[in-house]
Amino acid sequence: MRRLSFIAAIWCVAAGAVAATPAGDASATTEAARDAIAAAEQLRSAMGMLDQALTADDQVVALTQMIRAYETGLGALRDGLRRAGVREQEIRQSYELHRDRLSRTLGAMTVMERSPETLLLLHPDGPEATARAGMIMAAVTPTLRAEADRLRASLEEIAVIRSLEQASAQTLSEGLIQVQEARRLLASAVTDRSSLPVRFLEDPKEVQQLLSSADTLDAFATGLASLENDVGAPTGDFVSAKGALSMPVTGTVLRKYREPDAAGVRRPGLVIATQPRALVTTPWPATIRYRGPLLDYGNVMIIEPAKGYLLIFAGMAQVFGATGDVLAAGEPLGLMGGTEGKAEEFGSRFVADAAAGGAAGQSETLYVELRRDKETLDPSEWFTQAPTPVATKQN
């Protein structure tokens, strides 16, 4: 009876463990790992573009492309690591929730591994009891094996995730050095470039007078829109682009149009969280109407994509170009502030934060406002989440 009771106990433990343990979704881990690996390859490819940028005819275009490719890959990698981290948490929570059942299952499996089935099938009560034991064993063995396969697959998932995270940290550390150099070169290349068409002189007197008298961003933008000393915005059907404009920066929307912040303030624009030193680009061909510090907004860039429309970007640490420059879509407007970790620290910190589902270092915020004449519009109705197009060379 002891053998029969033991086998029955095994059956109860195994059946309970299988019923209590959720089926592993290895496909979720596989998909997240595949996406993260593809993103890491995208990062490596972007890193390899730096040498090409140094020999390009238009270094501004080439360096912008390299930095944007790096940031796009960084965002994709963050998403892949986040999903992989979520899956790992699910596995660990399942272990914690059913630890006792799983331990008894593993114990039963160990006993069976050490005891030949022929001995387990022998019963002191004779052939009839042995037959009953055999029937129970026939049902128990596949169940235990299925549970073993399930546990092994879950452990393999965690191993894949850990391996992926280690490789990603190394790639990020290597890429940070190159993208920092690309940003430095971009700032220099924008300053040196003199081929952009200009629509009016930099900082006309009217703008300076308006700057000294305006006490709000709204007042400044309204006054700026009323100035008529230029020859008009770039041609193009800006209105038809509604819903198709690329986001000006890689990041996460923290607050939507007129959504209240912690203090209850409702701003008529988007607040986007970005990585330190993220690149900001223009989503549409536009004329720079103003660049520089404004009130308490830090550096502000105001561009005119079409007559009567203004796009306002506030919060950058560094702005490029000059008032009156006409930019192509995807041209650099400036860089966000903040400080990235050292190369040897950035990778591991980013990976840990992303895997935990955090913002992965998105410590900077860009404010984006869209205006038509004297009214503000919801920018989210104009932007898509598609990657920002790379700048095309001016003719």
UniProtKB/TrEMBL annotation:
Secretion signal: which residues?
Answer: 1-19
Q: Which Pfam families match?
A: Peptidase_M23
Instruction: Alphabetically list the UniProt keywords.
Output: Hydrolase, Metal-binding, Metalloprotease, Protease, Signal, Zinc
GO molecular function terms attached to this record: hydrolase activity
Q: Sorted alphabetically, which SUPFAM superfamilies does this protein's record hold?
A: Duplicated hybrid motif
Quick check: keyword Flavoprotein in the entry? no
> What sequence ranges are listed for the domain M23ase beta-sheet core?
268-343
This protein's cofactor list reads: Zn(2+)
What is the official name of this protein in its record? Murein hydrolase activator EnvC family protein
The protein's organism comes out as Paracoccus pacificus
Q: What is the lineage of its organism?
A: Bacteria, Pseudomonadati, Pseudomonadota, Alphaproteobacteria, Rhodobacterales
